[in-house]
Amino acid sequence: MNACPCGSGKTLDECCGQYFETLAAPTALVLMRSRYTAHVLGKAQYLHDTLSTKQRVGFDVAEYEAHHGEITWTGLEIRGTSGGGEEDEAGTVEFVARCKDKDGPGMQHELSSFIREEGRWVYEDAVPNPKPATRTVQKVGRNEPCPCGSGKKYKKCCGRAA
């Protein structure tokens, strides 16, 4: 029983391995995990076949196979998902994949986009090193109306010292 490299805690056969022949991952997240596992195992044809039509143009299976051993993938952390469910047509998965190469340890942080083509999930595009949305905080002056809507001044409502 060998553990699946995606970190799910399942065996390879009950997790990502089952999709290498069928290409039918049920969600964008499952496809993302299986693509990571394919990178670990050097399954270049699976990586090619799970790319969108647009992305396949730039992927050379033989070139990938020639350079596969230069990077060792050491772990996957899923940071978040949006959409990408069994009923969706698009979705994103944010992840960090850890690796090491001749220069030492490294990581790949991405917000990957997935779409359905011909009824199955495929990798479409990615934003490397995504930044979180910038939060803006509006300061409320002591004598301004309280933002809670009470009609009182902030200092006499939510701004009171505890």
Structure description:
The protein is 22% helix and 29% strand. It is built from 5 helices and 4 strands, in the order αααααββββ. It has helices at residues 19-22, 28-41, 44-49, 53-56, 61-67, and strands spanning 72-83, 90-101, 104-117, 120-128. The model has no long low-confidence stretch (mean pLDDT 93). The N and C termini lie far apart (58 Å). The chain has 162 residues and is of the alpha+beta class. Strands 1-2-3-4 form a 4-stranded antiparallel β-sheet.
Show unreliable segments. Answer: none
Helix vs. strand class: alpha+beta
State the helical fraction. Answer: 10-25%
Q: Could you give the order of the helices and strands?
A: HHHHHEEEE
End-to-end distance: 58 Å
Number of helices: 5
Mean pLDDT: 93
Radius of gyration: 22 Å
Number of strands: 4
Characterize the largest beta sheet: strand count, sense, and whether it forms a barrel: 4 strands, antiparallel
Biggest sheet: strand arrangement: 1-2-3-4
**Subunit arrangement of the protein:** single chain
Strand content: 25-35%
- Specify the overall morphology: elongated
Task: Name a few traits of the molecule.
162 residues, alpha+beta, 4-stranded antiparallel beta sheet, 5 helices, 22% helix
Task: Summarize the model shown.
The chain has 162 residues and is of the alpha+beta class. 22% of the residues lie in helices and 29% in strands.
What is the topological layout?
Layout: H1 19-22, H2 28-41, H3 44-49, H4 53-56, H5 61-67, E1 72-83, E2 90-101, E3 104-117, E4 120-128
Antiparallel strand pairs: 1-2, 2-3, 3-4
